[in-house]
Amino acid sequence: MSEIAATTVHEAYAFACMRCGHGWEQAYEIEHHVDGSGKAFVVYKADGERVPSPLSTPTCANCGGHVVRIMRAGRVSTVQQLLQHQKTVRPEAGADRIAATAVPSSGSDAHHWQLADLLRPFHRR
Questions:
Q1: pLDDT of 110 strictly over 70
Q2: Range of the domain at 106
Q3: Structural domain count of the chain
Q4: pTM value?
Q5: If you count Cβ atoms within 10 Å of the first and of the last residue's Cβ in the chain, which end, N or C, has fewer?
């Protein structure tokens, strides 16, 4: 079958593994195609490589788990920035509660976050 139409869109997602707490973000090129018989199909690419749909069966690169929360892009990087800010700001009165939840730096794994830290912005107060 020959391809007769294609459009490409760019999407990015944030992911949090519910098993180990690992968080990451990934940008995708999503190619929408229509083959010669009129059947539509989609091809996902990440970093130029064809990958399975991140929405169907996401897999944690840290533990291999498949129970992964998918969020809009920016969620993991926002938490990362907040935690970096907490490390540089001197604790003030009442900040001991915040400091107790900060994830200690593991040095080589800058993208690993605890599940509670990734999901904290979603909790209702």
A1: no
A2: 3-120
A3: 1
A4: 0.56
A5: C
